Model the fold of this input.
Amino acid sequence: MPPHRPTLDLVARCSGPDQFAAFNKLLQSVLAVSMRALEQPRRRRGKRSPTGIEPKTFQDAVLVFANPAACREYLIARRWPDGVECPRCGSRNVLFLERYNRWHCREGHSAPQFTLKTRTIMENSPLGLDKWLLSMWLVANCKGSVSSYEVGRALKITQKTAWFLLRRVRRGNRTK
Done:
């Protein structure tokens, strides 16, 4: 029996003319859910590429999101286009603690430290940003639906973890 190649199967299913547009729409809707939780008005901006890195294929997405620093910069540019803000108080008076990969708000409230995952669908998850971004890319770009088995094989995680990822991504993608 020939070895199974999930990446090639997913590449065949995840091809289309609007790949980036679908991924960007999913990412924006997930982050919009996070912003609604903050109950703050969200500023709309024109379409642009803040980081200059836009994956077009699954292989490109794997290469782009393989580096944790690149994942962080990619999400920072989309979640906070005007600069990093504290998700609890909205202050821009924050300091990045690179050693701990989190920010510290200097306003003096009860929970001054926060990460990129704070108040998003990724909160309280031990999974890295690379797994989250790749799973969002797959959901946004695959024709039809993608199964947790396929995501698990493609991302080298268990099916149970893949199901958890997909559940949260789909919940974040729902429109009200």
